[in-house]
Amino acid sequence: MRFSQLVTALGGKYRHIVAAMDGNYDCRSRIPDDLGVIYLGSVRPGRSTLANVLCFRGHLRHLRPDLLVTYNWGAIEWVMANALPVARHIHVEDGFGPEERTVRLRRRSLARRFLLQSSILVVPSQRLRRIAVEEWCLRPQRIQYIPNGIVPERFGTLIDGPADACCGAGPIIGTVAALRAEKNIERLLRAFRLVADSHPCRLVIVGDGPERSRLEALSIELGLAHRIRFTGHLEAPESALRGFDLFALSSDTEQMPLSVLEAMAAGLAIVATNVGDVAEMVAPSNSPFVTAPNEIELAEALKVLLLDASKRTRIGQENRARTRERFRQDTMVDAYARLFDA
Predict the structure, then answer these.
(1) What is the CATH number of domain 152-326?
(2) 107 vs 104: CA distance, rounded Å
(3) For residue 325, is pLDDT > 70?
(4) Class of CATH domain 2-149+329-341
(5) pTM
């Protein structure tokens, strides 16, 4: 998503060749065709790490890019392929999957420590920056902190939207997430049950993924199906936020979630688990509602804001102002462009 933002915002300043490690090129629909981006198709032989590295080095020697940009652990074999440098290298690390949500895997930490010593590392959170220095032993001067950015004005004039189709009455708690294990929507459902027992409210879950059928079944098991709406995937996040009274994030692992930035820009108060930089992202008045990762504390934070509409409104206004001051897309794009040009 960020890459598609960058390519579109930078226009024709650079030429791009994209290799998706899982063969999924769905985000190409977000990049204008006239920018001439080349998509390599399937690039992963999958026979072994050595076979992959040799294959990718062959691609690099053939393409001779001015810059190799790799994203996250899934692209580490491209980093290995460039160990004897063919191109200048920037590695972007966005966070961790569920297998590393609390403790990083030692072999991966050692690999990053060894393979990224001569690269520039870009991270979107200060927490990741600390991990890179303290656990991966990378030199601070080779680490660039570039927070994610959005266009806040896209979210500034929201009116009634899809969320209002939810059954029942009361304020709407909303979340936008890929329905995967690390997002822990089950925690949100169980917190909602604790809230819904004593407060008239509704829950709207925007997104799709492998966990959806299990979560829908759980909502029935908890006796909440009549107060919860699963919308599935929605293309435009601003439409998803219309009608929400409060935004919730229940993830086990994040660094700087775009969904939270977009909800802040839409003028919403945030209740979230204390993951990544979320507590620093939100306005100071919102920080008390960033909780430990358990359903009881999440529910207590939800209750406070559900009962106080004026507090929700005030915090939401401060969150909106914060995105406009600190988390603008043009600031992020400028930072990446300076790095690409270095």
Answers:
(1) 3.40.50.2000
(2) 9
(3) yes
(4) alpha beta
(5) 0.85
